[in-house]
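#struct-queue
[09:14] JT: dropping the first one here, sequence first, then the structure tokens:
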Amino acid sequence: MEKNNKFLLIAFLLLFSGFVGAQVLESPTIEVTKDRTTVSVVWSPVPYARGYRLSYAPFPYVGASSIQTIDMGDATSLSATLWDGASFYVAVTAYDDSASSGFSNIELFFLSAAPVLNPDALPVTGGSWYKPQVSISWQWQLNGEVNSDYPVELYDIDLFDSPATLIQTLKASGKKVICYFSAGSYENFREDQHKFDPVVLGNTLDGWPNEQWLDIRSLAVAEIMINRLDLALQKGCDGVEPDNMDGYLNASGFDLTARDQLAFNKLIANEAHKRSLSVGLKNDLEQIPELIDFYDFSVNEQCHEYDECDALEPFIQAGKPVLNAEYLQKYSADANERDSLCNAANHARFSTLILPLDLDDSFRLSCLGER
């Protein structure tokens, strides 16, 4: 959950509860479940309570004036059908004739209609989300304990392996946080791996024995990825880096077309933006002209090594950064090679790092010069 919004909301709720009376009642515990655009909130009965009040506020939280309250009487649940993209914080208090309890746990939910894979979809333009600037400084670490000490503006870290406390710590130090997950491949070590039907699992990725290409035409796959975007929202990520977005160019085991890929990549971008999440395009250089309006930045590996950097220029021209990583040993071992790389990267206004392939922070060199 986004730290600043949540802390402001908690502070107001605690202040409000202090005026209601002595907190002699237990605080309820709430559980939120979703089914498309229907949300259900259930809370535990509180001994001696005469009734309950449900408080809600929109996400992003915009201040105390946005908090609304419903007197639920003695009911211990509420179910409501809202709209695609509805997003709210909810909490419950118990009350008797003279006092109110403290607030329950505060939960954030985001409702989504059934996904539609449409290669001709238009970009989501309404809403507000983080939009990084060209030549931004960044750190990319997906393995090992994250080193949070780099004086950079943006961190790109693993969605599943990074606790919300780490994300909050990075944001408290003024950094933006992008959360990585693989959208186009199945990883057999992820906590949601049991959700994938074997029928959507294709060939193993070259060089990655624990990953298989996904059938991105499947709405079930789209649902899982939307759930991952919800997880990014709940953890407080400012944006996401969905990986392996070019299955149609690989031996995936499925007969994927360019239009299949466009439909999937557009869906991921639009669903991220509905959640006020920034989103970066990974891979799929061939479709940048069709996707540039959907994505806020690019995450690229080895465009200098493979002479592909020209394909990324539309991002820079659109005022969107290219976060580039290079892995060749010559760049870390030879100062002249490194200077040549960095001169080219800086001229192109790319944010280029020289990193280990494992992205484990065993070393890091930046063409922008920060340490």
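[09:21] JT: and here's the second one, same format:
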Amino acid sequence: MSEHPFKSLRALALTKQRRADPPTTSPLLGGGGRPSTPEPATRGSMIDSAVYVGGDRIDSPTTLAETYRSLHEHDDAMAWIGLYQPSQHELASLAEEFGLHELAVEDAILAHQRPKIERYDDTLFVVLRAAWYVDETEDIDFGELHLFVGPDFVLTVRHGEQPDLSPVRRRMESNPDLLRLGPEAVLYAILDRVVDGYAPVVAGLANDIDEIETEMFRGDTQVSRRIYELSREVVEFQRATRPLLGVVRSLSAGFEKYRTDEELQRYLRDVEDHVIGTVEQIDEFRNLLRDILTVNATLVAQQQNEEMKALSELSVQQNDEVKKISGWAAILFAPTLVGTVYGMNFDFMPELQWRYGYFMALGLMLTVNVVLYILFRRRNWI
């Protein structure tokens, strides 16, 4: 088996010095320091803690203090401590015991970090964002995971309900040959777990996009809002996954320098392939949603144009009807006007005593009606 990638001569020296003479002060705890022997700690936020030798679990401490003690008592041992939203005091104890950098500890306390990888001497600090799809609300929920990976320890600090790392621990414990490769093997197994969790999210997004396309061509009025909301989910998912590509590539770049085991190299390359596939699919989703939004806007514009055209045709039709009504009203009004004039009760009116006055009035009415009819007919009013 090749030499563990973290166990350079300097790292081993630091480890032996730390175990032989634990630090008595910590910048995270303020002045006054603390005793060399860690204070008793309750289980608190600890989900699981184990000490491994040669890939086998030899101890299951229930407190941080017991974990430190067991790690000191066994040579070539590795501690794997899983924490859920630990307190600042617990992280300060871990920082003092394992020499964690205060900036990394601060990030682990505050959370809300983007996926990244940073190296502090012989310790890696990795931030991952797990994602899972909620069918009921068609939303993507996210959890944050911080890892401290050193020569003989792995600390996982979880913010959120996911990811559940118990399957990773069971998998590693059932494969002592893989676990024997050390903390870096645990890191890669956790990476694999997080990346595999992206697959159901990708499937859920693909299904949502298919439904949106169907609703769009069906003319659903609510589809624009759904497109916008899904686009926001895709953007947030992209923020969680794209930086992860830089994390795995950074680990790959250190293969030769840190003499990473060949089996772990293959393992990481497989994880990298999955990350690349996920990132590419998310990019396709984002472009597809942008195109769908454009097509939907076009369809809405076409529908509005058709509605405006229909309204215009209706308006023209109404105008034609109004013209007909107005024309016939004018034709019928002419006889009424003549009859009204000659119906007034005056003694001295022209043609009242004329023998042909009645026929003249009828002829006048008929003439006006014919003239108006011809005029309106020529103008297509009637």
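[09:30] RK: nice, looked through the second one.
[09:31] RK: The longest strand covers residues 123-134.
[09:31] JT: good to know. Strands lie at 46-53, 56-59, 77-84, 116-120, 123-134, 139-149, 153-159.
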